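Researcher: Let's continue the batch. This sequence belongs to 4Fe-4S ferredoxin-type domain-containing protein, and it's 389 residues. Same format as the previous ones, please.
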Amino acid sequence: MRSRNDLVTKSKVIIERCDSYSDQPVDAAIHKLLENLGGLEQFVKPGDKVLIKPNALMGASPKLAVTTHPTVITSVVKAVVRCGGIAWVGDSPGNAYANVEKSLTEAGIKQAAESAGAKVVYFQKHGVTYARSPSGNKKIKRIPIANPVLDANVIINIAKLKTHGLTLYTGAIKNMFGSVPGFHKSHFHKECPDPADFARSIVDVFEITRPKLNIIDAVYGMEGNGPSDGAPRKLGLIMASTDAVALDAVGSYLIGFKPSQIETTKAGYKRGLGEDRLEDIEVVGARLDEVRQADWKHAANLSRLIEWLPEPLYKLAAGWITVNPSIDQGKCTQCMVCVNNCPVKTIHYKDKVVKINLKDCIHCFCCHELCEYKAVKLNKSWLTRLIRI
Ligand code: SF4
Ligand code: SF4
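Model: Same format as before. Here are the structure tokens for 4Fe-4S ferredoxin-type domain-containing protein:
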């Protein structure tokens, strides 16, 4: 049977091996990726304003694999400048109240961008324009997008390959959620606590922003309790595609998921934004079975259980199958990041300690994602541990 993409051209994902973050191997991998996609000139014309959108979740050292590595950013910026594009590098960290300049400096992104000739744009500082939800989302009808994202002629999306507590996996589609700046992100979590609803809202953001080119930095990705509290793990790859859905289908498969498990990928395919069936994706540069690491540890996430447990049984057991956040008081520095960013304001500072009132918790795991001190623990109930989620 012919797929939708056979009617036009088959989606293509390019995979290049890259053994380290030294300049030379990264430049060589980026060069080959772009060459295999027909050259960057296909996407960038002289004078174009080109927004390069990394994953700059927080001000974490590049060694921790939380953020897109600076060397990859430098390499792409240099390529854009060579094409005559005006390069911008921008994002908004997860903490709505973060000093964005400090965060991007700590992640090495600011220096990497500027040294290669790009201007750094801090999304929080440029206001937003509201776009209508392309899917007719009734929960979030108007989507706030940072103005530099809409002002750019071309967007190059450079994601990091990681596991994720809420969405299972984060790659190309999820990376564009950074286009929603600051406290606006909390609104998405609050209005869409269900992971599938949340994923569909992210796909709205992706559909509005629609990068022309998507790259995933998977030289080192993150396994375990991503997107910030997991462990770096080497995959030794950089990948690219014009089709972010196909790129995520491949990226998630390489770290042990089925593409159909990832809600953002599924929703992207259903909306006709790309291909999620591996058999209908042309993979160039490496065979998937040669580079796949199926034993990656995944984040604690109940949505995997919902997939195979019949709904009535799941509802019956829901009270005992839980993953709840709690604060490790020994590690907590009382920085107030989780208190200020909890979408439902259920984390409080009282009697000189930070505490979570689980009664109102919507399990978005933003507190876990944003705590730089690894002081938010995810506690599995005995039944959750028993069934090894
Ligand atoms: S748990 Fe983490 S984010 Fe929350 S106040 Fe403590 S150190 Fe800050
Ligand atoms: S306590 Fe943490 S997981 Fe619960 S709603 Fe607040 S930020 Fe989300």
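Researcher: Any comment?
Model: Residues 303-386 form a domain with the Alpha-Beta Plaits fold (CATH 3.30.70.20).
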